[in-house]
Amino acid sequence: MPNLAGKVAIVTGAGRGIGRAHALALAGAGAKVVVNDLGAALSGEGHDDSPAQQVVREIEAAGGEAAANGENVADFAGAERLVAQGLERFGRLDILVNNAGILRDRMLVNMTEDEWDAVIAVHLKGHFAPTRHAAAYWRERSKAGDEVKGRVINTSSPSGVFGNVGQSNYGAAKAGIAGFTLIVAQELQRYGVTVNCLAPNARTRMTEDTFDMGAPQEGFDPLDPSNMSPLVVALCANDAQRITGQVFHVWGGAINALQGWSPGELFAADEKWDADALLHELVDRFPDGVAPGGMIAGMQAAGGQSLRAQ
Questions:
Q1: Which among 82, 111, 218, 240 is most buried, taking Cβ atoms within 10 Å?
Q2: 144: helix, strand or coil
Q3: Would you call 170 a catalytic residue per the annotation?
Q4: Known catalytic residue: 191?
């Protein structure tokens, strides 16, 4: 296991599921961890400090150091307080894992404005706000002449990179997180900070209500949330300093570094297209039509197995 001793990590949405697994894995590798979780319901309502506190107790029982935090990461000032707590408690910040999220699935024609706004806020702004404050700290350290080896690990989803029916709000936010990763990786590289992203498949509160995700009675469980965490630990190691701006699809033991929006079918002309000529070219190139393959096909192509909708 990479040695992360002396490093300090913040993990958002770390009270349950994938975030909890990340927090435990980072602590197991020697990092001190701020365990952030609002403790809300799956839809985002409510507040409960106990999930984050329970993970802190697990880390401490294993000999690690951790602190609980209940801030709402979609609140800009709350995210600033989260970063400040890590700095005040442990004296530094090296790793930020953005993982917090909610679900309010609905077909587009039935989706309310609030269902759209809430999901976009928690996922997309909830990635921006902590990263913004952590980046300010790392930039200040870099400009002061310190050697910075900062890490940001974001959380997208197969719904965001492949698309999934009924999740236009969630998928749009998760696609935005992948784009956010690419841009921020370029901006923060000069300060010694790498920014990468996971599109994980795991059995969590978010997936169990939508898909048939029963655990096998014996043998390897590809949907165990802890399968995601070795990649997080590896990316946080000093030796991964030159790996940035990547989006990794993870299913069990299969990890695929995705190549999004790669060049496809080219329609080229020496001058401005005539609409009628372009229409004929489109129909000629796509005689059977063309449409998105969807999330299941995308996951299978990336090395994962299929899920069955309930």
A1: 82
A2: coil
A3: yes
A4: no
